[in-house]
């Protein structure tokens, strides 16, 4: 759904009307259309159009439009030793203050896995994940994917992708649950 701003200005003295329609789409494109009709003298009132643009800008800046964080795979099943990639898509990844991967094993606390700040190409890993050779986090246009290689039973958990906006508003994906199967996990 787009954020829209419609303004209609009428001036009886100038016998004119002026309308501005501004749409902001989360997919990354905007549309502005204006229409003015004046009989006689032309109206130069663009203050309302500027106000509309400023409203949309601050809504975007403050995170009011919300970011759509999509984790398409809600359940992923893997055999011991497999390599699994958990994708995370965000429509405005370049505008993120940070993006994080968070792990939650069943019945346990959340654990920070990795973060990407200011759209860097290299992710920063936390705590026990810092020296792991089995984990990789990679950014691409519109995505921040977590890859787990040589999966183990301890990798079974729900993984959340979180988009941190400016001013620390956070949008979470629905989570991807990784279920590792094999002789040791039964």
Automatic annotation (TrEMBL):
InterPro entries tied to this protein: Ig-like_dom, Ig-like_dom_sf, Ig-like_fold, Ig_sub, Ig_sub2, Ig_V-set, TCR_complex_component
Cellular component annotations (GO), alphabetically ordered: plasma membrane
Pfam families: V-set
Top-level division of the source organism's lineage: Eukaryota
Any GO BP annotation: response to bacterium
Matching PROSITE patterns: IG_LIKE
Signal peptide boundaries: none
Start and end residues of each Ig-like domain: 67-181
Transmembrane segments: none
UniProtKB keywords: Cell membrane, Disulfide bond, Glycoprotein, Immunity, Membrane, Signal
Stretches of the chain forming a coiled coil according to its record: none
Cell membrane found in the keyword field: yes
Subcellular location as annotated: Cell membrane
Protein name: Ig-like domain-containing protein
